[in-house]
């Protein structure tokens, strides 16, 4: 094993000599370049201070080149000291823009916005004209602190000193405005550029991604590719993959993955993790698992992505296996990993395992549970019918419960038909001024199941009086890389006639499979025929009909819902998957249902 030796031990000059007369003469005639080399070999402040002392003794501080290297090493090294760097700056007789920029960059490294700007002002006051290297650092720290006011002032200074056409400055402005939420300003700077670089495109794509403008993010990336002369950076592709994840744009995500494979010799852990996250959240869990298993280096984010993905798909036992694999690798799970593993246990009905993980998180890994962790535990206990325990957990929380927890308990009470506790959950929800129509609908459904018609009518009346309307169910279905939206009972679609004709054929086919609409799910006071008609035009059925028309036989159908799937649509989709021999993947808010050959993956949860 190689033992690291201090830089001081490599210079005879810096080692105390018992007999200076016998010291070799060349030790006292080191040239400037050799001292600069020694500065760069310093590994801590102690070594730097001793080299600094010798430089002062020999008079090399008068050399701007030597002093500049000493200053930059002290200011920009991770182990450096800005206080000491400022003292070195004070020894320089005629500091120029390089020295001022170095101190500014040092303060930016330490994320000290105020000092960075003060030193810029000192530079102006001392008559030193800032160059194009002065502004990227200042704009970087403004972006970090979302300091839009200061960023705009610096933009004014850029115009004043004539650096508005410098490509590095323009790229920094695009980034700063994007981080500060001023996407129009980012676009304006980009459009005014005479010369663009790959960094310009990357900054604009990142600016859109930072604000969650995912469609625009893909649009800009498409424009960049259409120019045919740019090779996207990995950071840009991470933004594009994130956009695909949020838009459920699986085909676009696959093509981006292909672009990566063709153009990159190897993928770093951030890109690989982004790909895993994209595949699992777009319904391709198996592809995500393959990528995870092939990873040479895994970190917390990699484990978190795959565990959360397994939770989405109801694969709790596999999530637990990977969690234990993580522990064996001596990677300590963080709070994000525990949200994923508790959610996985909840969706898979692994109650005891979930309770053990919750205790392990608190007692062994010393992680204080957040409201998200408590939400997972309430969901876990509620799904298992342990409603009293779920209520006690909510009451014992160190923070005030939010609407998510009470909604989770209300949902569990509806499923397990516990009206008394359901009313407690609903009361607390309404005290939080919840105007979420689904809360009222859940309560209505619970009363309807219990045949408490008067109370159901009261809630319906309350919704009308308070102007709370139920959000209509809608679905997005992907066909040929485009998404088409369908709303329940909607007849405005451009392919309306074809869709309803297909819907009629589907119903006719399913009658032979024994399908009968569950009209008890329609809570309106209408006759049976209208109830059947309402059920037949649920958004999921319209989306499936459209996909059957527009896609090739045996190709999978992918659907994203805005509300939970009703039991009738669930039964209907199982039968369609068997009758038409299609794999159908439905994202139902925070979970996936994989329908194949008349079965659904959720039936094993």
From TrEMBL:
MF terms (GO), sorted A to Z: RNA binding; zinc ion binding
PPR repeat extents: 96-130, 166-200, 299-333
Source superkingdom: Eukaryota
InterPro entries, per database record: DYW_dom, E_motif, PPR_At4g14850-like_plant, PPR_rpt, TPR-like_helical_dom_sf
Signal sequence bounds: none
Keyword check for Electron transport: no
Residue span(s) of domain DYW: 514-604
An individual GO BP term: RNA modification
Record keywords: Repeat
UniProt-listed PROSITE patterns: PPR (PS51375)
Stated family: Belongs to the PPR family. PCMP-H subfamily.
NCBIfam families: PPR
Protein name: DYW domain-containing protein
Organism: Anisodus tanguticus
């Amino acid at each position: 094993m190689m033992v690291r030796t201090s830089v001081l031990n490599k210079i005879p000059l810096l080692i105390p000599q018992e007999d200076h007369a016998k010291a070799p003469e060349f030790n006292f005639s080191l040239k400037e370049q050799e001292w600069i080399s020694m500065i760069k070999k310093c590994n801590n402040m102690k070594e730097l201070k001793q080299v600094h002392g010798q430089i002062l003794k020999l008079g090399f501080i008068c050399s701007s080149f030597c002093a500049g290297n000493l200053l930059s090493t002290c200011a920009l090294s991770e182990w450096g000291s800005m206080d000491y760097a400022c003292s070195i700056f004070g020894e320089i007789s005629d500091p120029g823009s390089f020295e001022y920029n170095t101190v500014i960059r040092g303060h930016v490294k330490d994320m000290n916005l105020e000092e960075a700007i003060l030193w810029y002002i000192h530079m102006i006051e001392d008559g030193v004209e800032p160059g194009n290297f002065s502004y990227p650092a200042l704009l970087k720290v403004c972006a970090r602190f979302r300091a839009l006011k200061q960023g705009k002032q610096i933009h004014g200074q850029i115009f004043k000193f004539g650096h508005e056409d410098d490509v590095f400055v323009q790229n920094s402005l695009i980034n700063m405005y994007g981080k500060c939420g001023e996407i129009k300003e980012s676009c304006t700077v980009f459009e005014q550029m005479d010369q663009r670089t790959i960094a310009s495109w990357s900054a604009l794509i990142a600016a859109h991604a930072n604000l969650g403008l995912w469609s625009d993010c893909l649009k800009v990336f498409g424009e960049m590719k259409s120019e045919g002369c740019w090779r996207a950076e990995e950071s840009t592709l991470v933004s594009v993959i994130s956009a695909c994840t949020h838009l459920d744009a699986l085909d676009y995500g696959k093509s981006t993955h292909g672009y990566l494979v063709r153009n990159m010799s190897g993928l770093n852990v951030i890109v690989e993790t982004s790909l895993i996250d994209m595949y699992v959240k777009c319904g391709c869990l198996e592809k995500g698992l393959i990528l995870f298993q092939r990873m040479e280096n895994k970190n917390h984010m990699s484990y978190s992505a795959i565990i959360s993905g397994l939770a989405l798909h109801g694969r709790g036992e596999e999530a637990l296996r990977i969690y234990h694999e993580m522990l064996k690798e001596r990677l300590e799970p963080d709070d994000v990993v525990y949200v994923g593993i508790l959610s996985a246990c909840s969706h898979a009905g692994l109650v005891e395992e979930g309770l053990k993980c919750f205790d392990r998180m608190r007692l062994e890994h010393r992680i204080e549970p957040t409201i998200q962790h408590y939400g997972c535990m309430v969901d876990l206990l509620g799904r298992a019918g342990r409603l009293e325990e779920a209520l006690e957990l909510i009451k014992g929380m160190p923070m005030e419960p939010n609407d998510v927890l009470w909604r989770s308990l209300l949902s569990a009470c509806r499923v397990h038909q516990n009206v008394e506790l359901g009313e407690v959950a609903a009361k607390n929800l309404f005290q939080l001024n919840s105007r979420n129509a689904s809360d009222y609908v859940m309560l209505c459904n619970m009363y309807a199941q219990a045949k408490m018609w008067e109370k159901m009518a009261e809630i319906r009346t309350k919704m009308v009086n308070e102007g709370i309307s139920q959000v209509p169910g809608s679905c997005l279905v992907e066909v040929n890389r485009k998404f088409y939206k369908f709303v329940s009972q909607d007849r405005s679609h451009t392919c309306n006639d074809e869709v309803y004709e297909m819907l009629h054929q589907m119903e006719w086919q399913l009658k032979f499979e024994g399908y009968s609409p569950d009209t008890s799910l329609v809570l309106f006071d209408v006759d049976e025929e209208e109830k059947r008609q309402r059920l037949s035009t649920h958004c999921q059925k319209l989306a499936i009909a459209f996909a059957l028309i527009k896609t090739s036989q045996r190709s999978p159908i992918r659907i994203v819902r805005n509300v939970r799937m009703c039991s009738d649509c669930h039964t209907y989709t199982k039968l369609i998957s068997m009758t038409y021999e299609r794999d159908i993947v439905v994202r139902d808010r925070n979970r996936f249902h994989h329908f194949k050959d008349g079965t659904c993956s959720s039936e094993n949860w």
